[in-house]
Amino acid sequence: MTPVQQALLILLLPLASAAFIALFLRRAGGLASAISVAACAGLAALSLALVFGGERNFPASWEWLRLGGFSLSLGFKFDDLAALMLAIVAVVGLCVHVFSLGYMHDDGAKARYFGGLSVFMFSMLGIVFADNLFMMFIFWELVGFSSYLLINHYCEKQSAADAAKKAFIVNRVGDFGFLLGIVMCYWLNGTVNLTELAAHHVYTTWVPLLLFCGAVGKSAQLPLHVWLPDAMEGPTPVSALIHAATMVAAGIYMLCRIEPLMTPQALTVIMWTGTATALYAALCAITQRDIKKVLAYSTLSQLGYMVAAFGLGSLLSEQGEHRMLVAAGVGAAMFHLTTHAFFKALMFLGSGSVIYGCHHEQDIFKMGGLKSKMPLTFAAFTIGVLAIIGMPYIAAGFFSKDAILHLALEKNTAVFAILAFTAVLTSFYMVRLWILVFLGTPRSDEASHAHEGGLTMKLPLILLAVLSVLGGYTALYGHTFDGVWSLIPHAEGATILVISLGVMIAGGGTALMLYKPAGSDALEQKAPGLFGVLVALKESFDAVYNYYVAKIQQRFAILLNFLEQVALAGLIIRGFSGLVGLFGIGARALHVGSLHAYVYWFLIGVVVLWAYAAGVF
Amino acid sequence: MPRGFSDFVMNFHFDPLLLAIATPLAVAVAIMLGLPKRHSIRLAYVGFGVPALIALWCWANFPADAGVKYAFFNRYSTGLDGLGITLALGLNGISMPLFVLAGLVGLAAGLYAIQSTAERLKIYLMLLLIMQAGLMGVFASVDVFFFYFFHELALIPTFIMVGIWGGRDRNYAAMKMTIYLTVGAMLSLIGLIAIYVKSGASGQTFDLIMLREALAADPIGVTTQKHIFGLLMFGFGILVSLWPFHTWAPLGYGAAPSSAAMLHAGVLKKFGLYGLIQIALPLLPEGAKHWAHLLALLALGNVLVVGLITIAQRDLKQMLGYSSVMHMGYAFLGIASFSVLGVGGVVLLMVAHGLSVALLFLLATSVQQRAQTLDMTQMGGLASKTPVLAAFFAAATLASIGLPGFANFWGELTIFVALWHYSAWMTVAAVAGVVISAVYGLRSVASVFFGPPTAALEEVTAAHPVTDLSWREKIPALILLTALLVVGFWPKSISTPLDSTLGASFRMLDAPRLSAGR
C-alpha cells in the first residue's frame, strides 16, 4: 500500500462506517457501535503505521471543482506537524470510542451516537490532512456539524438543543471571518495551497487576522468562547474527544499551518486574545459546581495558553556563528496541544467514569469519598490533575507549560505574569475539584453507591494515564516529530523550574487549605464578594449575547418584518393597485362615447408610433 | 436544417428531450380525456418517471467538452420558420444541470402528490404533469420563443393549483402571485421581443444559437442593451423574487399545495435566473455591466433584509418561503459578478437550492400533517416521535444553510469567491448572510423537533397518533436528498460541463472587447 492509499483509507474508513450506520443500522445500536469502533481501531492502526513509518510530504492532490480560472482541489499535506496531529486524533479517538462502548451502553440512540463519532473522525482527519485552506474550511464546517450532532444527542432536553444550536451559530460567526480570510488570501496570492503560501505570499495583516477568526470560533477564544461550556450538554466521551482533545485544538493546528502568513501585528492580537482567554476562563472555573463545567473552563484556559504561545512568535536562536529565527510559538503551542490532548481527555473520561459511577450526578458538592469507591478512576484523575498543574518531571503538562512560560518570559513580561497567575489559578481550581470529588466521605446517595465502570471504561483511562505521564518526554517519540519538537523553546537554568514550582504550590496549597470535602463552597462562605464578582464575570458574556439576540436582533427582525408586511406589502403594493384603479377610472373617462374623441385618440396614437419608429425617442 | 412533420415521421429517431416533454403532456391529455382514477395514477408514474430517467441519462451521457455547442440537439419546423421560430431542443452545460433538476424535482413532487390525500387528485395530477412538461421544455429549449412558451405552460397551472388546493389565504395568495408573475413575465417578454427585433442583421430570429452568432458579430448598441437588460433584469427579477419585488413568494409558497410549491420554488422560479444567464448575459454584456451594481445592491437586500425577516417568522412554510427568497440574493450576486466562476456558482446554487427547497416544502407538509399546524411555536420535541422525519428535515436545513457535503455549499462558496473580485465589501455583507441563515435554519429545526413537546402538540398527538415518515413519503425525499449529496460530494459532475460552456461563451464575449480595447 502506498502512503497515499494508506492516508485515503484512513480518511475514508470512518466515512464508510458513518454511511453504513446511517443507511442500515439505525435500529441496531450494538452492531453500529461495533462497526464504528472497528473502523476507528483500523484507522488508528493505519495512522500509527503511517506516522511512524516515516513517509512524509508525499504528493497527493485531486482537482475537485474547476470554474473558469478558479480551481479547488483536495489533497494531503503530510509533514511532521500533520503526523503529530494525526497520531493524537487517532489515539484519543480510539480511547474515546472504546470508552463509549461502556458509557453509552444503555443509550437508546446508540446508533446515532456512534455514527456521529464516525462522522467526526472523518471530518477531523480531513482537517489534519488538508493541504489547502478551502479543503480545511470544508472539513472545518463538517467538524462543526458533527459537534452539533453530538451535543444534540439528548435532543429531548431543551438545554441540549439550545447548546447545540449555540455551538453551531457561534462557530459560524467565527467562520464568517475565516471564509473571508480564505477568499482574500486566494485573490491576493492566487493560491490557498499551504505549501505554496509558505513559499510565497503577499505581506498583509488582514489575511492572518481574518483566518484567526476561524480559530477564535473553533478554539473558543474570547469573545466567542460562550459555546464551549454549554457544549458540555453532550455525552461526556464527546466532551473528551471533541470539546477537549481534538476539535477545539483544531484552531491552534490551523494557526500553526498558516504560521508563515503571520505578521507581528497579527501575532500581537493573537497573543493577547489567548492570554485574556486563559485568565478569564481560569477565573470562571473557580466558581463552577458541575464537574464537566470545571473541566470545560479549564479547557478554555488551556486553549488560551496555546493560542498565547503561538502569538508569542519566534525566538532568535544562536548556535555558534549562526543566528536563525525559530518558530518557537508553533513548537510550544503544539507541544502543549499534545500533552493537553492526553491529560484533558484523561480527565474528561475520568469525569465520565465518575458521572457514570454516580448515576449521572454531576454536582461536585454532592460527590466526595470516591477515592475508595473508584480507585482506578481516582488514580487516573490524579495523574491528570498533576499533569495540568505541572508537577515537575512526573507528568507531561510540566514540560509543555514550562516551554510556554519560558517563551513568554523571553518575549513579553506582561504576558508571562498573566500566564503565571493563570497557572496559580489552574492549580487552585484543579486541586479544589480533586478534593471535593475524591476525598472525604460520600455526600449523596449517588456517590455512596458509586462503582467503577467495566473494562471498556478502564482500559482507555489506563492508556491515557500512561500517555499523560510519558507524553512530555519528547525523546520517547524518536525522530518521528522532529519537525515540531525542534521548535520547542527550552529553558536554560532553573528560573522557570522554580517559578513553575512556586506557582503550583501557591495555587494548590491555597486550595488544600481552603477547601475541605464539604457540601458547600468554602470560597463562597469566606469571600462572598469575590465569589460574586467571579460569578458575574462568568455570566457577563452570556448576558450580553442574550440581550443582543433577544432584544436587538430579534426586535430588529420583527421590525423589518412589520415594515415588510405593512409598508411594502400593504401600502406600496396596494398603493400601486390603487394607482392602477385610478388609471382605470381615467381610462373610463376617455371612453366618452363620442366618435370624434376616439378619432383624435387614434390619431395621437399613430403619431406617437410613427415618432417612435422614426427614432424620435 | 429544420425538419417538417412528415420528415419527422419518416426519419424517426430517438429524441430524448422531446420525449421528456411529450410524455407528461401526453399523460395529462389522457387524464383530461377521462381516464379512470386507477389508471390515471399508474400512468402518472410514467409521466413523472420518464422525464426524470431521461434527465439522468442526459446527465450521464453529456459530453465533457461541449463548449457553446448543444448536445442532444434537434430542430423541428413549426410552420413559423419565416418568423424565425423553430422548436429547437438541446442541452448545453448551463441547461443540462437544470434539466436534471427539473426531472428529479418533478419526479419527487409527482410521487408526493400521488400519495397525498388531495381532493380531485386526477385534476391535480393533470395540472402537475402539464407543469412538469413545461419545466422540461423551458430548459430544453434553444429557441427563445419556446423558452418563454414553456414557462407560461408551467406557470398557469401553478395559479390554478394555488387557487384551488391552496391552504390559508389561498385566494389572496393566488391573486397576488398571478399579478406579480404576470407583470414579471410581461416585462421579460418585452425584453425578449426587443432582442428579437434588434437581432436584425441576417433576418430576425428567436434561435439562441443564431442570435448568439449574429450578436457576437454585430452587437446591439450599448444604449439599447442597457434598456433591454433593464427590462429583463426587472422582469426576470420579479419572477425570481428580487428584493423588493419578492412579497408574492412567501405568501404564495405559504398557501400553495406542497407539490406545486416544490415545483415552483424548486424549478420554475429558476426560469428568471436561467434567462438572465443563458440569454441576457451573453447577448447583452454591456447592458449587464451597466446594471450589475444596482442588481447587486438589491440582491444584498435579499440576503440581509429578507434574511432578518426570515428570523422573525413563526409559520414554517412562510419561513421556508422567505429563506428561499433570501438565497436568491446569492444567485443575483453571482450574476452581478459577471464571471465564469460567479455565474457557474449561480447554476450550482440553482440546482442545489431547487433540490433543497423542494425537499423542505415536502417535509414541511409532512410535519404539518403530523402536528396539525405550521406554527413553529406550537411544536417541539417531534424528533422523539418521528426520528426519520427529523433527520431528513435537519439534513435538508443543513443543506440549505450551506454545509459542505451538500450541493448548496459549492454554489455559495464559488459565488463568494467570485464576488470578492467584484466588490470586497459586498462579499463581507453576503457572507454575513451565512450566519443569518444558520440562525433561522437551526432555530426552526430546534423548535419543531427538539426539546420537550409543547402542551399543544401533546394534545394533537394524543388525538391523532403520530407515525414516522412512510415509504411513500420517504422515497421522494430520498431522491432529492441523494441528489444533494451526489452533487455535494462530487461537484465536478455538474461543474465540468458548466465550465466548458461558460468558459467558451465568456471567451466569445471577451474576444471583441479585447480587440476593441487595444
Question: How are the secondary structure elements laid out?
Answer:
The complex is a heterodimer of chains A (617) and B (518).
Chain A: H1 3-24, H2 29-53, E1 61-67, E2 70-75, H3 80-103, H4 110-129, H5 133-151, H6 158-189, H7 194-199, H8 206-218, H9 227-230, H10 236-245, H11 250-257, H12 264-285, H13 291-312, E3 315-319, E4 322-326, H14 328-357, H15 370-373, H16 375-389, H17 397-411, H18 413-438, H19 445-448, H20 455-470, H21 482-485, H22 495-514, H23 522-526, H24 528-590, H25 595-613
Antiparallel strand pairs in A: 1-2, 3-4
Helix pairs in contact in A: 1-2, 1-4, 2-3, 2-4, 3-4, 3-10, 3-14, 3-20, 4-5, 5-6, 6-8, 8-11, 10-14, 11-14, 12-13, 12-18, 12-24, 13-14, 13-17, 13-18, 14-16, 14-17, 14-20, 16-18, 16-20, 17-18, 18-22
Chain B: H1 5-10, H2 16-32, H3 37-60, E1 71-76, E2 87-91, H4 95-115, H5 121-140, H6 144-165, H7 170-198, H8 208-217, H9 222-239, H10 248-255, H11 258-268, H12 270-283, H13 285-311, H14 316-337, H15 340-371, H16 387-400, H17 407-422, H18 424-449, H19 455-463, H20 471-489, H21 492-517
Antiparallel strand pairs in B: 1-2
Folded structure, characterized:
The complex is a heterodimer of chains A (617) and B (518). Chain A has 25 helices and four strands. The longest helix of chain A has 63 residues, at 528-590. In chain A, 73% of the residues lie in helices and 4% in strands. The model of chain A has no long low-confidence stretch (mean pLDDT 86). In chain A, a hairpin with a 2-residue loop joins strand 1 and strand 2. With 617 residues, chain A is mainly alpha-helical. Helix content of chain B is 75%, strand content 2%. Chain B has helices spanning 5-10, 16-32, 37-60, 95-115, 121-140, 144-165, 170-198, 208-217, 222-239, 248-255, 258-268, 270-283, 285-311, 316-337, 340-371, 387-400, 407-422, 424-449, 455-463, 471-489, 492-517; strands at 71-76, 87-91. In chain B, helix 4 runs antiparallel to helix 11. In chain B, 63% of the residues are buried. The chains are: A mainly alpha (617), B mainly alpha (518). Chains A and B meet through strand 1, helix 5, helix 6 and helix 24 of A and helix 13, helix 15, helix 16, helix 17 and helix 18 of B.
